[in-house]
Amino acid sequence: MSQHFASRPLVIAPSILASDFAKLGEEVRNVDQAGADWIHLDVMDGHFVPNISYGPDVIKAIRPHTKKIFDAHLMIAPCDPYLEAFAKAGCDHITVHAEAGPHLHRSLQAIRALGKKAGVSLNPATPVSAIEYVIDLIDLVLVMSVNPGFGGQAFIRSALGKVRDIRAMTAGRPIDIEVDGGVGPDVAGELAAAGANALVAGSAVFKGGTLEAYKTNISAIRNAAALARGEAV
Ligand code: DX5
Ligand code: ZN
Fold this sequence. Notes:
With 233 residues, the protein is of the alpha/beta class.
């Protein structure tokens, strides 16, 4: 079943925004061991979004704690002056928001010139047409299923239709479709069926606070998505 899923592997990306910042290195090691594929890094500036999280120095400090892909989600404006710092800190993917500045094409060129995978994130109100003319510069589309700025918000269901539209738009291209916000085992199947292959989860992964809980939580999300993809669980 599901030939169209075959090209992009299923990815679970815990967001460390929901972790215990007092022991960030240990939290990263634990989600790595618990089965995370990517580590999702939410960078917030108190300007583009109404919250402040952490920046390149913190990312650099946790880089030695895992070999997993560092998937940076920059909720900052402007972003261009900081791209090099995030690349040097060890981010593998650098995703910027389509709404964050007037020169999206330039930002994506800059990320690729730094040798990193380039992503574009779309807020819930942003149409998919925002990526139409930059599609050749995109390795990843990050569909926000909450308004960015905080963890623990409710999943916005219109993201499902947006994922379907992006899947159609990116068909045949090596582009990951990632969804972020309010994602847990309850919606993972629907998201995978719609065409998302990368699922970010903060609260749904870090609830429980132990390595054992993280294993259970990641498996629950992975199994729900894998089932919808027609893959063995
Ligand atoms: C929101 C962030 C998300 C968030 C996800 O601005 O981009 O990555 O941490 O957290 P949950 O899974 O709790 O919605
Ligand atoms: Zn995020």
